[in-house]
Amino acid sequence: MNNPAKKRLKDEFKARVVVGGVYQIRCNPTGQSWIKASANLPGAKNRFDFCVFTNSAPESGMSSAWKEYGAEAFSFEVLEELEKQELQTDSEFKEDVNTLMALWKEKQKEGL
User: Fold this and answer.
1) Has residue 9 been placed in a domain?
2) How do beta strands 33-38 and 19-27 pair?
3) pTM of the entire structure?
4) What angle do CA 69, 72, 73 make, to 5 degrees?
5) Considering its fold, how many domains does the chain have in total?
6) What is the CATH number of the domain that holds 34?
7) CB neighbours of 53 closer than 8 A, spacing ≥ 6?
8) Each residue's pLDDT expressed in tens, for the chain with a length of 112 residues
């Protein structure tokens, strides 16, 4: 790859919009849900889709329900998105995503 093409790809990568946030994975038959956060929501969705495709639970806490009801009984839902700001560092963005997660966990407690 020549230098202008490399530079263009590098610039496009730097200019992409980074979206993080809070999402939940829900077992529809039971209503049980797991709230998670990610600094890369599209990546989290891709991981979930891969787990559904391979019929493997995304985490061990879901495995018994996953085995009982099957992958198609689970859904992925974005609860809140957060866009990384232009001058924000990766660690600052992750901290903001974690703060958003803490707020959602608090909301979940209040709903009980």
Assistant:
1) no
2) antiparallel
3) 0.82
4) 50
5) 1
6) 3.40.1440.10
7) 71
8) 678 777 777 766 666 678 999 999 999 999 999 999 999 999 999 999 999 999 999 989 999 999 999 999 999 999 999 999 988 999 999 999 999 999 999 888 876 5
Residue 110's pLDDT is 78
Residue 46: domain span = 17-111
- Amino acid (one-letter) located at 112: L
pLDDT computed for residue 4 by the predictor: 78
Q: Can you spell out the DSSP letters for 40-77?
A: -HHHHHHHHHHHHHHT--SSGGGHHHHHHH-GGGEEEE
Cα–Cα distance, 97 to 66 (Å, whole number): 27
Distance linking the first and last C-alpha atoms of the chain: 56
What is the distance between the alpha carbons of residues 106 and 73, in angstroms, rounded to a whole number?
26
12 in any annotated domain: no
Tokens of 4: 């202008």
> Cα separations (Å) of 62 from 3, 5, 6, 104?
47, 44, 42, 20
